[in-house]
Amino acid sequence: MIDISNINKIEWKNTKVSVLGAGKSGIAATNLALSVGAHVLISEHGDLVKITATQNLDIETGGHSDKILDSDVIIISPGVSDKIDIIQKCKELQIPIISEIEFSSWFTTSPILAITGSNGKTTTTSLLHEMVKNAGHNSMLGGNIGIPFSENVFTERESGQKNTVHILELSSFQLEHIELFSPQISCILNISPDHMNRYDSMDDYLKAKLNIAKNLVTPAWLVYNAADPALEASLRDRHRTQLFSRLTNQQVNYHVNGEKVYCGSIENPQILFYMDETVLKGPHNIENIIAAATMANLFGVNDLHVSDAIKKFSALEHRMEPVVSPLPLNFINDSKATNIASTMAAINSFENITLILGGQDKGETDFSELLESMQGRVNHIICYGHAAESIHSHISSYGDSFAIYNFSDAILKAIEVSEDGSTILLSPACASFDQFSNYEKRGDRFKELVSSLGVIHE
Predict the structure, then answer these.
(1) 374-391 burial, b for 16+ CB within 10 Å, e for fewer?
(2) How do residues 372-382 score in pLDDT, each as one tens digit?
(3) Whole-model pTM?
(4) Whole-angstrom Cα distance, residue 296 to residue 211?
(5) Which of 315, 318, 311, 366 is nearest to 344 (CA)?
(6) Distance CA 413, CA 137 (A)
């Protein structure tokens, strides 16, 4: 077994590494481990592994065997629960179990800026990436946003590139097995119930998120939302913290006033941008913008570069994404909204809405929490998928609602009941896995239907 407290002294040649899970992050971690000389076993519960066995690489499929117990360290992929039997055996043998994020961080000395939270991670991370690039850094975007951290670290090492900054979006799953990972700047955007099918309680979920700053030491910073009660209660006594919030001007670098956001002191404010200069709409996106700006400021990016990135930033695919249609309706693809808080933020950004909810529930969700946001904004509700009946039972008191299993049929029903000028908002508050392999596929199907069904509303 390796001694994690002395990673700089580890001789990786012939060190035995087991990687559990052969998705993108598992394969990227495998390639990084092989590149430093380790002997790797990649173990996949399913039947398919998109990597070929080579020297120092063994592959097993169809389950996790006891071969894993003959390891010096275990890298567990974010999609693999640590409650499975083989992990319990590894714990009994005291084999170190780490995340792909932790492992990758051992092989780079470049600055790491990392963001987590229940909602807004992708927007905030992407915007911070643009701000850092504007300042002339070689910014590498990775983590939960699409490119595994280990793939970026591998690329950095192989190319020898300089002036690198790693900008990471991190999920709670990726933060579960952190030991030494220590970003230069960490950010927690917000906390609301999510992934309750994986965690025993909100406290367990919050603890996973807080791991992002587990090893915060000077000169590192932790940035968090001053208006989030769970974060404020957990972090009020932490040192090296910087707050952000659109709801207060106290102890923050960026201030919201009407249709403008200011930087600098309250006594001598400078306009950073006007609200109509950004495609990012809604109060939640203002929070995302000032969170990214706060991190960029702490990293030394000047406000001119910050402002320019905000004004040039394009809407992200599947996140409050307008979809062009021949119909006299406004279509918004918010397929990435997979929890209540994210859907609530989307509802609060529009009016005259036909709302499409549904998919696969992530754990006994109380969809009635959406009712208050719906008041005066939502005219019709279409519930689809495995969660359709459950959602309908929670919100049927609101009025005009329908439960339709098939996703495509649900979209057609939304078009049928919507008045000209309405906004048809796909913001499901559920995972996609009942009918789609991921939220991207769901959003793509929505866009295909919207683009091809111009005759439906005649």
Answers:
(1) beebbbbbbbbbbbbebb
(2) 999 999 999 99
(3) 0.83
(4) 21
(5) 366
(6) 48
